[in-house]
């Protein structure tokens, strides 16, 4: 289980220091970021509070603002945990005047899901005005229909879709990351070496810290997890 942190113990995970987001210039306009995953622990002490009616979508009979798995909340924390609040962890986007979340519950609380439901969640993100979609999920099956939909969002909606390269430690292609119109992200450890589990192939555009990444979990908890 994730460990509770005491007030005044805000921590900057090593991966945030490696990315060094404070050196990156932010624009004047707020951007909407969509996380397609297992949901979002709305009400977490270290995450922005979202509107349960307007700020997410679920194609399942499960609420998007309840994360019974934790994976989606962990990913959301790395993207946008609140900074400067003396609790929990920091993130790459600590200023919530500069971005907002939309949540697409593409996966069930079990962590599984269908490609149709994932694509429904992606479509909801685009319709909500998201310009960045983060998907730390994947599978081995290629679909021309799915590829065409991502191409449309890239070409016509100006959406950057980012996905996990995969965790099988070989050079096989994982999808959606290996589609031409999706940015594939591999994982490195704290020494900037390729993580042993990370996929490696010619579709990978970038690598990011992915070993023992500390972030938020449901129940005002925190834990270090690994993956692309």
TrEMBL record:
Organism of origin: Ditylum brightwellii
Catalyzed reaction equations: Hydrolysis of proteins with broad specificity for peptide bonds, and a preference for a large uncharged residue in P1. Hydrolyzes peptide amides
EC number in record: 3.4.21.62
GO biological process, one term: proteolysis
Keywords: Hydrolase, Protease, Serine protease
CC annotations in GO: extracellular space
Catalytic class of the enzyme: hydrolase
Keyword DNA repair found: no
GO molecular function: serine-type endopeptidase activity
Source taxon at top rank: Eukaryota
Name used for this protein in its record: subtilisin
UniProt cross-references to InterPro entries, sorted A to Z: Peptidase_S8/S53_dom (IPR000209), Peptidase_S8/S53_dom_sf (IPR036852), Peptidase_S8_His-AS (IPR022398), Peptidase_S8_subtilisin-like (IPR050131), Peptidase_S8_subtilisin-rel (IPR015500)
A matching Pfam family: Peptidase_S8
Every Peptidase S8/S53 domain range: 29-228
Recorded family membership: Belongs to the peptidase S8 family.
Acetylation recorded as keyword: no
């Amino acid at each position: 289980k994730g460990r509770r942190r005491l007030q005044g113990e805000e921590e900057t995970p090593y991966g945030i220091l490696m990315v060094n987001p404070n050196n990156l210039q932010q624009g004047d306009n707020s951007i909407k970021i969509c996380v397609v995953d297992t949901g979002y622990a709305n009400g977490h002490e270290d995450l922005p509070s979202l509107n349960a009616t307007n700020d997410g979508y679920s194609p399942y009979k499960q609420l998007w603002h309840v994360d019974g798995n934790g994976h989606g909340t962990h990913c959301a924390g790395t993207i946008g945990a609140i900074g400067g609040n003396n609790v929990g962890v920091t993130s790459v986007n600590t200023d919530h005047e500069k971005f907002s979340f939309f949540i697409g519950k593409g996966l069930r609380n079990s962590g599984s899901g269908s490609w149709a439901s994932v694509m429904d969640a992606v479509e909801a993100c685009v319709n909500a005005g998201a310009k960045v979609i983060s998907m730390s999920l994947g599978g081995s099956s290629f679909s021309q229909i799915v590829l065409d939909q991502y191409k449309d969002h890239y070409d016509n909606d100006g959406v950057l879709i980012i996905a996990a390269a995969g965790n099988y430690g070989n050079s096989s292609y994982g999808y959606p990351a290996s589609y031409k119109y999706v940015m594939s992200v591999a994982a490195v450890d704290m020494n900037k070496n390729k993580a042993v589990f990370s996929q490696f192939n010619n579709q990978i555009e970038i690598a990011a810290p992915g070993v023992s990444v500390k972030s938020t979990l449901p129940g005002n908890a925190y834990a270090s997890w690994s993956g692309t």
